[in-house]
Amino acid sequence: MPNLDGGHYFFTALLPIDNHGIIEHGPFKSSAVHMVRDALEALPTALQTPESEKIGIQSPFARSLRTHFVRIFVVDAPTYNGRDSIDTLLATAQGIDPLKAQAVDRLACPYLAFVAEFDPAGDGAEEPRSWLEELWRLAKPELCSVLQYCFQFDGDGDGAAFADFVIKGQIETTMPFNDYWTITPPLPNLAGVELIAPLIGAAALAALVSIASALGVIVHDHWPWPAGLGLGVFLLVVLGVAFIGAALFYDYNLINRRGAKPFPAAPNATLRHVLKALYLQQAFTRFAAAQQATSPAELRAAFASFAATVRPDDLAGPTQPAGVVRSHFAPEPLDA
Asked: Which residues pair with 70 in a beta bridge?
């Protein structure tokens, strides 16, 4: 699955932490990986509760109105999934001692995992560079506080240098982080005839060549018909296996090519659309609760006033602020 999928870009990078020396900060000494953890602990998160909204210390990533999700964490070692399983009888025959420890994968250094989902600019051809450069402009101090302990990181560079550094650690994202589809996506079906036609064509071509060869040696080379028939059968088997094998290989690649295409983008699924939808959800809940005892005429007038106030088609506002994890009934008016 590609990084750009479903109208969103799913970014994953592993950045090595330079953990060779000791970091001195004042009277204290620490390792680079512990300094990264301390920086991550001090990094503000999204406003996830009404109480945190009152504090108002917002995540730096909320400054980007393209960023749906960011998670940064340290990876010290691969997860140990237990011993490689093997048939007991086969292990006994091979003399494998189940009490002897198997080799365990280890990392040469700890890594900083940088995972994000964002709205691509345009057709996404400039991603993730465009988004990384934007992030550098909006959140350089916070990014430097975490990434300064990574190998070969240069906090004095520009946005292009930052993008180059992070992209070097990018790995393909094989699973998207969201699904905004509420209806069946308009996916083209792979018709059965598209898979069967190459097989039928391969079999027909093998039969045609075999029959032509058999008739040729019988008529022109004066072979006895049993020998010519035997040659035709032999060619039919050999060419049939070869041509049908080639057709199956074509079908296999056709399925893979179709499967590798990006999933279509869901309508109204950018961050601005999502924030507007959350705002309207809460605003309409309050409106519906307040109109329970009104007459039809009053309801129509109230709804017209409501629509003029919330402006459903205006993504710029009023809307839910970015980085605010809120979708609940609130008696007070929402901020524009």
From this structure: 116
CB 160 within 8 A of CB 45: no
Tell me the two tokens of residue 61: 């990533």
The beta-strand segments (E) located in the chain are 4-5, 8-16, 22-25, 28-31, 67-75, 111-118
- B/e letters for 300-333, b = 16+ CB within 10 Å, e = fewer, are eeeeeebeeebeeeeeeebbbbbbbebeeeeeee
Domain ranges of the chain: 4-80+101-168, 193-260
pLDDT above 60 (res 324): yes
Written as six digits, the tokens of 14 are: 């592993």
Closest Cα to residue 153, out of 245, 145, 261?
Answer: 145
Quote the CA–CA distance of 48 and 40 in Å, as a whole number: 17
Placement of tokens 């198997």 in the chain: 102
pLDDT of residue 97: 83
Could you tell me if 173 and 10 are in contact, meaning their C-beta atoms sit under 8 angstroms apart? yes
More confident residue, 80 or 117: 117
Q: Residues 157-208: pLDDT tens digits?
A: 999 999 999 999 999 988 777 778 888 888 888 777 788 888 888 889 888 8
Residue 267: CB atoms within 10 A of its CB come to: 11
Contact between 62 and 140 under an 8 Å Cβ cutoff? The reply is no
Cα separation, 158 vs 166, in Å, equals 13
